[in-house]
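Figure 2 data, in text form.
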Amino acid sequence: MHSDLSPSGRTGVLLVGTRGQRGPGEVLIRIRGGLETFLAWSDTELPKGTTVLVVETRGRRTVDVVAWDVPEPTPEPTT
């Protein structure tokens, strides 16, 4: 797949929380010049509003996600 078309490696926000192995949630991802939703599976329960990283695709509209903490920018050293 062309990288612009693949959700793998992209971050998104859960619109519906995941329930671990009991069921998927829904994630909103910026892709292909717009925003799209995908079913989102995770190993653990993740609440609505969690920022996630897509680690795998399960097909056209289903992905595996993990919680993603957006790193804080490193301050420039002062001299």
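Caption note: The chain has a mean pLDDT of 91.
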